[in-house]
Design a protein that fits this description.
The protein is of the alpha/beta class. About 35% of the residues lie in helices and about 20% in strands. It is built from five helices and eight strands.
C-alpha cells in the first residue's frame, strides 16, 4: 500500500508542476512587459532560468525587468552590488512590497533610506514609483501599444502578489506566507493604460 501512495503523491506533484508551468507560460505569453520577481537575499537562487528562454521564444518585443523584492532585508552595500551586477543583463528595480493587510491606502515611499543599512522595516512600499515610471516609459515607446499588459512572474513565495497589491495601492490579490496561494492568472487594472497579470 505504501508504494502505491508514494506513486500517487509523485503523480500529484508532477501534475501540479505541469499545471503551474502551464499558467506561468500563459502569463508570460500574455504580457508585454515581464516583471521577474526574485528575493533580494538570494537573487540568483530565486531566479527562474526558464523566464529568459520563454521571453526570447515568445512572439513580439517583450521587455524583461528584474525586481529585487524584500530589499529591506539586505544590507544596503550588498543590495547596491547586486543591482550593479544584475544591471549588466537588463533593467533592475529594488523593491519592498507593502506588508499592510488593510484594503485601502497602501503606503509608499519614494526611495530607500540611505542613513540606515537595513532600511524601511516599516510596512511602507518602496520602489513602486520607480517601477511605474519605467512602465509609463514602455507605454510611450513606439514599439509597444499605448496600453500594455504587465506580467508578474517568479518562483513561489518571492512576493509577486504583494508587489501587485503595492502597485495597485490596495489588496487586489490574496497573499500569504504559504507558497502557491496564486494558482491561476489574475488580471488587475492599474491605470487605464496598464494591466497587471499575476
Amino acid at each position: 500500500n505504501a508504494p502505491a501512495a508514494s506513486t500517487n503523491a509523485h503523480k500529484s506533484k508532477e501534475n501540479s508542476l505541469k499545471s503551474y508551468f502551464k499558467e506561468f507560460k500563459k502569463v508570460v505569453e500574455a504580457g508585454d512587459v515581464i516583471l521577474e520577481v526574485c528575493d533580494a537575499r538570494d537573487p540568483l537562487g530565486t531566479r527562474c532560468s526558464e523566464v529568459g528562454t520563454i521571453i526570447r521564444e515568445s512572439q513580439g518585443q517583450k521587455k524583461h525587468v528584474l525586481i529585487l523584492n524584500k530589499s529591506d532585508l539586505v544590507p544596503r552595500e550588498n543590495l547596491e552590488k547586486w543591482v550593479k551586477y544584475l544591471k549588466k543583463f537588463g533593467p533592475v528595480v529594488p523593491f519592498k512590497a507593502s506588508t499592510q493587510a488593510q484594503k485601502k491606502n497602501i503606503g509608499r515611499s519614494r526611495r530607500f533610506n540611505k542613513s540606515r543599512p537595513q532600511t524601511n522595516q516599516s510596512s511602507t512600499c518602496v520602489g513602486a514609483d520607480l517601477l511605474m515610471q519605467l512602465l509609463a516609459n514602455y507605454c510611450r515607446n513606439k514599439d509597444l501599444k499605448t496600453s500594455i499588459r504587465v506580467a508578474i512572474v517568479g518562483i513561489p513565495n518571492v512576493g509577486k502578489s504583494s508587489i501587485n497589491n503595492s502597485l495597485k495601492r490596495r489588496r487586489a490579490c490574496q497573499v500569504g506566507a504559504t507558497p502557491g496561494i496564486t494558482k491561476n492568472m489574475q488580471e488587475v487594472k492599474k491605470e487605464k493604460n496598464i494591466k497587471i497579470l499575476d
